[in-house]
Amino acid sequence: MWGRWPAWVPWVTAVWGVCYAGVQVGWVLAGAQLPLGPHFAFPAWVQVFLALAAVVAAVAAVRGHVPLLFVTTIVFGIGTFGSPMELVALASGSGDGVGGIALVHMALDVLGVGPLLATLVSRLRVSRGRCPRCGRDHPGGYGGPLVHPAASTAGRGVRWTVYSAMLGVVPWAATKIVWTLGGTALGVTGEQWRAANAGDSALMNALSSAGIDFTVLAAVACGLLMLSLVQRWGTRLPRLLPLPPAWLTGVSLGAYGIVLTVLSAAWLLGLVAPPAPVWPLPTATDTAWMTGFGGLAFGGLGIGLLVAAGSYAGRTRPRCAWTSLPRSHSWKTPMWCSLGTSTPPLA
Fold first, then answer.
1. What φ, ψ does residue 133 adopt, rounded to 5°?
2. End-to-end distance of the chain based on CA atoms, in angstroms?
3. Are residues 162 and 300 in contact, defined by beta-carbon separation less than 8 angstroms?
4. ∠ CA 223-313-320 to the nearest 5 degrees?
5. Predicted pLDDT at 89
């Protein structure tokens, strides 16, 4: 079954699209709006647009329309931004910061982007005359066994890029650790930091009292994920275990980190007016520096994850070992007979 994913993933995408559209229409009829922050909500027409986009995605998946698949994958991919941060908030016991409806909406986007992207990739490969499963030009269908490459380590350039990106976490993590240990950094004492976070969950307060910051632990988890993607031992894991979280987290953290880094640089260089101090940080300059530390940390983790995931995807991509059809076989039409059906499942 898993070996024939190009045949059934489009139908999974179609079912998701119909369910997604139904949820959005139900929310509109019930008067429930998607919140964007504590003081703003999207108008109802945005939910109607998303419902229509989900229906378009469902039809495009079944019909194999590559341009529509590309556009809808981007639309629903945008909806996954911030999902790693929300997961950290939930894991820390801090609750969801976006509200129940927005959290469900984000979860629906996350569940749909994977099948959408898989359908898009398989259809792109077919349109180029290649195998929809492994992406290579070879004789035979895709119902046969797969040959997996040997375990390998990422190239030196990739490894050094990833390790350098990890170093971006150091200023931000060091500042957090100093605060949790009771020291002073950026004009803020440990007591002031704990007072500012007095409303955190019991888990976060317990870790903080032991000198451990939960967000630093989350950054360490990202670092371990990056190591699994570039080291030989990581290629022995099931391929879909590290890749989806790496892509998802890398895109969100990378985009967020770049924005924070640019803002911080603009503030510190005097290109734009500095921000108001954010308590407990005493000055605008301290706020700008902490923003920059966060940008380097999130941007470094995000870019490192994307680079590592790209290397891992290439090094672990299996190839088909099916050779029952002649080289003149066309992927675009006759191959569907190898699935035991006369109807092209992706056409």
1. -90, -50
2. 19
3. no
4. 150
5. 82
